[in-house]
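Build the 3D complex.
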Amino acid sequence: MFRQIDPRSSIPLYVQIADRIRIAVATGEMPPGGALPSVRHLASQLRVNPATVVQAYRELEEVGVIESRQGAGTFVRELAEPKREAERQRLARRLVRHLLQEASTLGVTREDLAQALRVEMKVKLA
Amino acid sequence: MSYAIETFDLAYRAGKHFEIRDLALKVREGSIYGFLGPNGSGKTTTIRLLLGMLKPVRGAITVLGRKVPSEMARILAQTGYVPERPHLYPYLTLEQAVRFHAAFYEGFDMAYAGEMRRSFGLPLDQKLSHLSKGEIGKLHMLLVLAQRPKLLVLDEPTDGLDPVVRRDVLSALLDFCSQGSATVFISSHLVHELERICDWVGVLDNGKLVIELPMQSFKNGIKRIRLTGAPSLVGDTPFTVLQRETTGTEQVWVVRGWQAPMAQWFEGVGAAVKEVVDLDLEEGFVELLRSSRAPTS
Amino acid sequence: MYKQVLKAQWLAARLPVALLAVLGFALPLLTVTAGGSLEGAPAEQVALWLFTAQKIGVLFPGLALLLGLLLGISAWAPDHLGKHVYALSLPVPRPMYVLLRFAAGVTLLALPVAALGLGAVLASLVVRLPSGIHAYPAQITLRFAVAALVCYAIFFAISIATKRAALAVLGVICGVLLADLVLTAVGQGDSGTVTTTMFMLLTNWPGPLSILMGRWALFDV
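Done.
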């Protein structure tokens, strides 16, 4: 799940980590009520500053994705299905935003993009 | 704010030229401070000065609140030092080397040392001279972490180690950091490694501290800006200009301390911003050095 | 701390120490057997036996010198290899560390000294001395101990210095000492014609090296 943390990206490391966790929660990979790795474990595993992990967890707590229980650790909050769906939609919109930005940088038109989407999605569904 | 390491007006000379000049380091307690600089910039010399192994020409050094060198033994009791080149006795076996080291440190955690030895896969009864470079690197980290020190001073601890060993060594280091509030002072020219783990960075070039600031500011703050119609003479700018280049009709400026609203400044002087590109730590580091060595015209 | 420093120094020097212990044990026995049997020997033969024994006795100070040299060097060799960085990073004030190293070396000295003492006692028991000749095992062992200590202290001090300086001083001292020892043994008198004035100062009382000079006699009148 955390394979591609990229320190060179302009996105701060804690944001990258928090995003990965959000995705995992949205897709169900991290089930509601499941335990998150300890700060110590994650910092060591990812080879990042522990403060970075703390920041990521704090951010996730603020938006209500996870909660920390005194003495027990950090856990995924029980989110109702509508909330998880909203999360997935948020991620989908972000993906599309990135796609559109890149397309404009590369000079790919909306028409080219729409055509490509049709082709690719057909292939996937088939 | 308490500092684990502080230097004031530190200078050192070996031979005719000054190796270190006007050095004013401030390493916050509990931070992981990356000491960056090209080879030969004086990183190892600075570390030797901090540990009382060299005598400065002038200036004061305070480590863990105590003066160097008058309270050196007390400082060293709480400091773990990994040197640039291995310095343990090669004719001792690993077990003998650990026991020797442990005898000098009151809080040495033998159980923790044993744990690390097993997870590093180090053999107990081989002479140090028969161990590989990677194994020696792991041993050095094991010894200093088992001291459970307040301060870690690491001089290129992963230099020359293969990527797998590097990961293991850094993992162990970060695992230790997460357990408490130790301060880490780590020098390296492996910029990407420092990028992940450091929350502060100090850049040394030619014996002078070029910049010292939080890692995030350093990373986010340095940008490459493509524009047209940039003025040739520049007065006050809200950002610091590190570099300016003209290619055809466009100009490329490298600036530090950039924030998005500053695009307005360019509009104010009749220029148009085409693109703002983030520089990663390595690129930012290179630009910073270039600009500090040859001032912009 | 001392225990570990001692252990480290023993591991570095155990071969030479063991070797010198064996030599130290053997030397007194050698002085006894070299001159042949003393059973019912006439006066001239006894004198010759004594002379031979004392000629071999030159090896005693030589051994003390060697012991001091080897232990002095091995005390600092491991630190020299690493340019003293390790020792300087340990939380021990430098003078204290030097003391630890010195004390460890002195402890290791005890082994060959004890071996020599044992050999001397054994030799004096084994041989049947005619009347008028006495054995002095205690005295020679003591003298050996002090001589070894003095040499150790000198080479220990030299050893801390830079390699070049140490080797230079070493070369000079060894060469000069050796020359004078040889001359004394050959019977050319004990002032030593090759020695310089400074050497004279060193080797005549109260110079530190005077203990090495002169006759080393396990057996004497």
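Helices of chain A lie at 13-27, 39-46, 50-62, 81-106, 110-125.
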